[in-house]
Design brief:
Blueprint: E1 2-7, H1 10-20, E2 27-32, E3 42-43, H2 51-60, E4 65-68, H3 71-76, H4 78-84, E5 89-90, H5 94-101, H6 103-113, E6 120-123, H7 126-134, E7 140-144, E8 153-155, H8 159-170, E9 182-186, E10 191-200, E11 204-206, E12 211-212, E13 215-217, E14 221-224, E15 229-232, H9 239-259, E16 265-275, E17 278-285, H10 292-296, H11 304-312, E18 328-336, E19 359-363, E20 366-369, E21 373-376, E22 380-388, H12 391-402, E23 410-411, H13 418-422
Parallel strand pairs: 1-2, 1-4, 2-3, 4-5
Antiparallel strand pairs: 6-9, 7-8, 7-9, 10-11, 10-16, 12-15, 13-14, 15-18, 16-17, 18-22, 18-23, 19-22, 20-21
Bound molecules: adenosine monophosphate and glycine (GLY).
């Protein structure tokens, strides 16, 4: 089986690496890939949202399974176009992908499916949004409706913060088109949990739960990012909790989408808040989480290609549930100083040859330059991950190795998964 992974991040590197271990895969291509994936799979210079050329390539290379990594590929309609050519694709159609690309769509779906989520309103005029926020004393979260790379979410704790956030989106248009419509929702308190599931459009198989660390700084300080690290399994994510989340969040979403005519084939990711009142859905994503994939995929014992292919073909019939190692995994992101805001790139990356075996290095913002070697090319540069007997051991292994990675401005969060060690 020839496989095409679409995307260029550490998540896609982890997907390609995992597919290489499958008994079914013969060759793995990655479009466009990055400076690290070329040594593993074959990098193809086609952007993740270039539908026409991706389809042309997949047909020419007789690809048997396409795996969509980033939301941009889903939103561009790569899934629709591949399926129209009869090429099995793991990743939903564009219309179903609106569960991620439009927060208003997602909230409406949750309401209709009876999925527990924060109370909310959808606005395009600032005064109405402000009134809604004032009624909650400004304890609200203001979200750009469209895609904003994880940055279009402003958490507010008083009226002044809420006013600024609403003005930034609806008056100053600081978030461009993505923020012309906003969702304002009730601020929820609790611990977050990422639960992903693989769906064939009818059934869903839960992946191992993970916890992502979204703020840039130690102790959850600083701005929201796409994710600075993750670990699996979090001690508070009991099998009963996972079962409940599957039943009240994932399954109703897939059923509601199917009822609306959208057969969801791919990963559905529920970002959950574990509140004192129970599980609440913060958001859905139409893809694997990044960096969640980098700690969850290494724990998967079921053949990854078999399960993704069956989901892509719309029938997970032969798989009762996914199998996991009982070992734990920790993934820590090495980022460029300034991320998630502006940062410099083009710095040589040293020390990768000194990473001990057993620590996985998944590349994201790296590029191979002839004569210079590997250089930085993005905000999230690498994810280092390890699998070990406990979260603590996996964490120690990653943190011991991460000090060896050197480039100007490199930073990481030293407290990823620390909570699990303390617990
Ligand atoms: P989202 O992209 O909607 O998941 O939001 C990104 C992050 O903002 C989440 O991971 C939470 O940390 C935070 N967040 C979003 N919605 C809420 C909410 N209703 N209450 C508290 N925090 C939230
Ligand atoms: N780590 C959060 C996300 O992938 O959206």
């Amino acid at each position: 089986m020839r496989i095409l992974v679409v995307g260029s991040g550490a998540r896609e590197h982890a997907l390609a690496w995992k597919c290489m271990q499958s008994a079914i895969s013969s060759r793995v291509f990655i479009a466009p890939g990055n400076g690290g994936t070329g040594g593993l799979a074959k990098n193809i210079r086609i952007p993740a949202d270039d539908v026409v050329n991706l389809v042309k390539f997949a047909k020419h290379e007789k690809i048997g399974l396409v795996i969509l990594g980033p939301e941009s590929a889903v939103a561009a309609g790569v899934g629709d176009a591949m399926r129209a050519e009869g090429i099995p694709t793991f990743g939903p159609d564009r219309a179903a992908g609106r569960i991620e690309s439009s927060k208003a769509f997602a909230k409406d779906l949750m309401r209709r499916a009876g999925i527990p989520t924060a109370d909310f309103g959808v606005f395009s005029e600032a005064p109405a949004a402000q009134k809604w926020a004032d009624e909650r004393d400004g304890r609200v979260v203001v979200k750009a409706d469209g895609l904003a790379l994880g940055k279009g979410v402003l958490v507010c704790r008083d009226r002044e913060q809420a006013r600024k956030a609403i003005d930034a989106m609806l008056v100053e248009h600081s978030f461009g088109r993505a923020g012309h419509t906003i969702v304002v929702e009730e601020l929820l308190e609790g611990r977050e949990l990422s639960l992903m599931a693989i769906s064939d459009g009818k059934r869903a198989l839960a992946l191992a739960p993970a916890r992502d660390f979204k703020r840039a700084g130690e102790g959850d300080s600083g701005p929201l990012t796409g994710g600075m690290g993750a670990y699996s399994p979090p001690p508070d994510a009991t099998p009963e909790l996972v079962e409940e989340a599957l039943r009240i969040a994932i399954e109703p979403a897939i059923k509601r989408l199917a009822g609306d005519g959208f057969e969801y084939r791919g990963v559905l990711y529920a970002g959950l808040m574990l509140t004192e009142q129970g599980v609440r859905v913060l958001e859905f994503n139409a893809r694997f989480g990044d960096p969640e994939a980098q700690c969850v995929l290494p724990r998967l014992a079921t053949d990854p290609v078999r399960v993704m292919l069956e989901a892509a073909k719309g029938d997970l019939g032969s798989i009762e549930r996914l199998e996991w190692t009982d070992r734990a995994a920790v993934a820590v992101v090495v980022a460029s100083r300034g991320y998630p805001d502006s940062y410099e790139t083009g710095f040589a990356i040293d020390g990768l040859s000194h990473i001990p075996p057993g620590v996985l290095v998944f590349h994201a913002g790296t590029r191979y330059v002839a004569g210079r070697g590997l250089v930085t090319s993005g905000g999230r540069v690498l994810t280092l991950a390890a699998v070990a007997g406990s979260v603590g051991e996996a964490r120690d292994a990653v943190l011991a190795a991460i000090g060896r990675v050197r480039f100007p401005g490199a930073f990481h969060r030293p407290d990823i998964a620390q909570e699990a060690v303390r617990a």
